[in-house]
Design goal:
There is one protein chain. With 347 residues, the chain is an alpha/beta fold. The protein folds into two domains: 4-185 and 224-248, 3-Layer(aba) Sandwich (Rossmann fold), CATH 3.40.50; 194-222 and 253-289 and 309-334, UDP-galactose 4-epimerase, domain 1 (Alpha-Beta Complex), CATH 3.90.25.10. It is 41% helix and 14% strand. The protein has helices at 13-24, 68-78, 92-97, 99-120, 153-172, 194-207, 227-239, 256-266, 295-301, 309-327, 329-332, 342-345, and strands spanning 4-8, 28-33, 58-62, 82-85, 125-131, 176-181, 184-185, 213-215, 221-222, 225-226, 246-248, 254-255, 275-277. The protein has a seven-stranded parallel sheet, with helices on both faces. A two-stranded parallel sheet has the order 7-10. Strands 8-13 form a two-stranded parallel ribbon. Helix 4 packs parallel to helix 5 and helix 8 crosses helix 10 (309-327). It starts with a strand and ends with a helix. Residues 329-347 have low confidence and may be disordered. The structure holds NADP nicotinamide-adenine-dinucleotide phosphate and guanosine-5'-diphosphate-alpha-D-mannose. NADP nicotinamide-adenine-dinucleotide phosphate binds next to helix 1 and strand 5.
Length: 347
């Protein structure tokens, strides 16, 4: 029997890798996308097959985590075996600017989806995209047993989602799990997260179309892994015999300065000549250090990360150089590329 999966957040970084993985495993994949005035499917366009084609396995549906009625309708119609809740307002800095919206989507959105599974009476296994941001002020190393101390509206909303997922597991005997994932990156990472902001800037500075890079706190420590490996861990959590929560992390922490060093160094540049400080990128409350202990996932799920932060920096710089060459190169000499970045608009 072909398994059916429903992914919220399918147009995001993780959603695109997870859709790829599940299609490769023979799943029929359904994704919820938001209606926007411009196309927002660039990360999954390469997977799309006209739904009239008998070989089509990927189906997209309009919906939103703020619309519970629509979620009930979709759950009843699709009747999935597995539900992956990846949708969220996922930017920590932005959550301080839009705290109520973040609570609604990143927090209440989860209960709407869980309740839709419950009301529709489907027997789906449920994955909740929990986050290492839950640990916040609690020092590393952080594991499944470490107490939470959220430090942003985003983290507080994710804390609600973590507990409500656990509650539905206990109250309704649902196979519902939390993947507590530490930062994971890739060439598909959103442009306003610090790694991609840096690697994209390196490519543009090297090509001569950007002069400076404005950043905030360079001392924070993050445990950066590779997104393509982390979605494999999500899938493994839903194939386990019992529903449990798992940390996914590399166990290696680097500062933002380390990531700058690796990224600029990869193309022979000294980051200190280009990086400038802008207080707009500071957070009212910062998370100083996240370094995860994923030994439970490694021993029980057989999940092993192989790419750490420095290796990622090189992969992402190479990809951004290639992307710029494909898109920008023919234009560079003739047309001045815009000097603004999305980070100046949000983030
Ligand atoms: P991302 O790239 O920001 O993608 C977020 C996805 O959520 C996008 O598809 C977005 O749609 C969708 N979305 C946002 N608001 C929505 C709404 N109201 N209704 C329906 N969909 C909505 O995030 P990611 O990096 O792939 O992360 C996936 C999940 O894991 C998120 O929940 C994130 O908080 C969590 N997480 C991420 C990390 C990490 O390091 N990447 C670590 C721990 C946890 P549009 O494309 O239309 O914007
Ligand atoms: N975005 C950004 N922009 N971050 C900056 C900048 C900047 O200009 N300058 C310094 N930083 C620092 C932030 O203060 C933070 O300490 C660190 O870089 C990482 O920031 P982000 O890349 O925005 O990620 P995050 O750690 O806040 O959140 C990401 O990881 C979480 C898991 O730990 C997101 O993907 C969350 O959705 C996820 O839950």
């Amino acid at each position: 029997m072909t398994k059916r999966a429903l992914i919220t957040g399918i147009t995001g970084q993780d959603g695109s890798y997870l859709a790829e993985l599940l299609l490769a495993k023979g799943y029929e994949v359904h994704g919820i996308i938001r209606r926007a005035s411009t196309f927002n499917t660039s990360r999954i366009d390469h997977l799309y097959v006209d739904p009239h084609d008998p070989n089509a396995k990927l189906f997209l549906h309009y919906g939103d985590l703020s619309d519970g009625g629509r979620l009930v309708t979709l759950l009843s119609r699709i009747d999935p075996d597995e539900v992956y809740n990846l949708a969220a307002q996922s930017h920590v800095r932005v959550s301080f600017d839009e705290p109520e919206y973040t609570a609604d989507v990143t927090g209440s959105g989860t209960i709407r989806l869980l309740e839709a599974v419950h009301l529709a009476g489907v027997k789906a296994r449920f994955y909740q995209a929990s986050s290492s941001e839950l640990y916040g002020a609690t020092p590393p190393p952080q594991s499944e047993k470490t107490p939470f101390y959220p430090r942003s509206p985003y983290a507080a909303a994710k804390l609600y989602s973590y507990w409500i997922t656990k509650n539905y597991r206990e109250a309704y005997d649902m196979f519902a799990v939390n993947g507590i994932l530490f930062n994971h990156e890739s060439p598909r990472r959103g442009e306003t997260f610090v790694t991609r902001k840096i690697t994209r800037a390196v490519a543009r500075i090297k090509a001569g179309v950007q002069k400076d890079l404005y950043l905030g706190n360079l001392e924070a420590i993050r445990d950066w892994g590779y997104a393509a490996e982390y979605v494999e861990g999500m899938w493994r959590m839903l194939q386990a015999d019992t529903p449990e929560d798992y940390v996914l992390a590399t166990g290696v922490g680097y500062t933002i300065k380390d990531f700058l060093e690796a990224s600029f160094g990869h193309v022979g540049l000294d980051w200190q000549e280009y990086v400038k400080f802008d207080e707009r990128y500071l957070r009212p409350t910062e998370v100083d250090a996240l370094i995860g202990d994923s030994s439970k996932a490694q021993s029980e799920l057989g999940w092993t990360p192989t790419v750490d932060g420095v290796a990622l920096a090189k992969i992402m710089v190479d990809a951004d150089i290639e992307a710029l060459e494909c898109e920008g190169r023919p234009w560079i000499d003739k047309v001045k590329l815009p000097s603004w970045s999305t980070e100046e608009v949000a983030g």
